[in-house]
Every structure is written in structure tokens, then in C-alpha cells.
Specification:
about 55% helix, about 100 residues, mainly alpha, three-stranded antiparallel sheet, Multidrug-efflux Transporter Regulator, Chain: A, Domain 2
Length: about 100
Amino acid sequence: MGNQFDTNELTAVLLDENSRVTLRELCQACALTAEQVTALMDEGVVEAQQVSGTLYFSGVCVRKVHRMVRLEQDLGVNHAGAALALELLEEIEQLRARIRRLERH
């Protein structure tokens, strides 16, 4: 009897703020439709750059969309609530980073 990895492929990609993914890749990574991602763009949650007719998203956007999906699925939060929670989580992360920098001096 083989293990679960015999038939399933596991892939991980590290993304940072300089990484770029297409709309299709973002949809695959976050299990969303293009329409759902477009709605997030319309709401100002994520921004894309268009190059030669193709939309590109930063690695930060992938993380943001993934977190939003998790908030909606795991906690039952709606788009507006998830967007607010994301904004507050980002602010907390920035404040913690600032505290770490101040503590080093």
C-alpha cells in the first residue's frame, strides 16, 4: 500500500511583493472564479496591473485574497466584513513590525 503522495502532486510556490501572477493563477491559488476576483477588484480589495491585455496581481494580492476567502469560509464573514478585518490585520502587522524595529534600537 502506497502513501497519499503516490497519486497526488503537492506543489508550493513562495510569493513576495515582487512576484506576479495572472488572473487564472490567482483564481487557481484561491479557488475563486474570475468573476469573484473581479468583484474584489471592484470593491478595491485588490489591484491588478494590465500588461498587453493580461491582468497581473502581486504576491501580496494573492495572500490578501487567500486570507479573505478563509475569513469568509471559516467565519462566515461577508465581503465587507472580510475587507475590514483584512485592513485591521494589516494595520496590526505594520504596528508589530514597527515595535520590533523600535525595540532593536
